[in-house]
Amino acid sequence: MKSVGEGLDRVLDKALTRPVPKTAGAQVRFLVKQLKGTRAVAGLLGISQRTVERYVKGQIKKPRPQLAALIQGEASKRWQPKVKEKAKKAAASTNGLMIDVRASLGYEAPAGTTDEARERHLTLALPPRHAERIFAAQERGGEQQMRQAVADALKEVYFQQRGTRAASLEEVRMLNVEHIEFDL
């Protein structure tokens, strides 16, 4: 997984207490209930209202692969929002996040130091304030903002070791992300 947003979505899915509905019909029925009508679901999925009604009635059981992925994604995004919010609050207030990342990391530093980006594989515990900042960036919706929030967290926790070294380090750049995964 190379996207910070995907990693955050996956860690929140681990907090769920019940599984997301498995069949396309059940997922569409859930979406109809959440969005309060078939017209809204049709607009969301880019299909006709009549097709949505057929899924609800069980007349269509197997969507084409691209539509199945879209239905699955939209249903899981809206599934148990209170549980996901509770997990976010716990991570942002007391627990923090674990991060496992493999990427090229470099930094801005004063003249005479090496600031070349190099491949690193890090597994670290991020404090709650960084978890809060990363989740806030996710709500604003920008992948670049999420990457910057993760890079700032890595700067403090890994490069500066929570203020005990490299105080003059200015900015960490996270490039070529090969893998990023979070855990609560």
Short description:
The chain is 54% helix and 18% strand. It is α+β, with helices and mostly antiparallel strands.
Q: Give a short account of the largest sheet.
A: 3 strands, antiparallel
Helix content range of the residues, please? 40-55%
Structural class of the helices, strands and pairings? alpha+beta
| Through-space gap between termini | 17 Å
Radius of gyration: 20 Å
So how many helices? Answer: 8
Secondary structure: number of strands = 3
What can you see in these coordinates?
The protein has helices at residues 4-14, 24-35, 38-45, 49-57, 65-78, 81-95, 128-140, 143-159; strands spanning 97-108, 118-126, 171-183. It has 184 residues and is an alpha+beta fold. The chain has a 3-stranded antiparallel sheet. Helix 2 (24-35) packs across helix 4, helix 2 (24-35) packs across helix 5 (65-78) and helix 7 (128-140) packs antiparallel against helix 8. 24% of the residues are buried.
List keywords for this structure.
184 residues; alpha+beta; 3-stranded antiparallel beta sheet; 54% helix
Topology, pairings included?
Elements: H1 4-14, H2 24-35, H3 38-45, H4 49-57, H5 65-78, H6 81-95, E1 97-108, E2 118-126, H7 128-140, H8 143-159, E3 171-183
Antiparallel strand pairs: 1-2, 1-3
Helix pairs in contact: 2-4, 2-5, 3-4, 6-7, 7-8
